[in-house]
Design goal:
112 residues, alpha+beta, two-stranded antiparallel ribbon, 3 helices, 4 strands, 33% helix
Amino acid sequence: MSAFNEFVESFKGGHLNAQMTAKMCELVDSVGKFQQKGKLTLDIELTPKADGEMLTKVKYTLKAPRRDTIESIMFTTPENSLVDSNPKQPELFEAPVRAPKDTHRVVKQLSA
């Protein structure tokens, strides 16, 4: 195992390894879902201290694609509400069109 792998696995008791694994999974999911590129950056800063001590700062940045905007055409009503169908356009049918009740029975008879 390399020194880098040992560092990632041991830093903060394995917390960094768990966090990076979770962020990587989030990145893979988001890139696959939105079919856009993403980026996970790991930044390690070392500052020397006395007697061989090293102040170690780790920062990671996730830039995953996401959908911030959803668009849809809406129509205004005379009451100033928004609806998804044009209130000025007459309905083609008064009630929803439904299949006859005994269609299910006919299908069963034909397939039996």
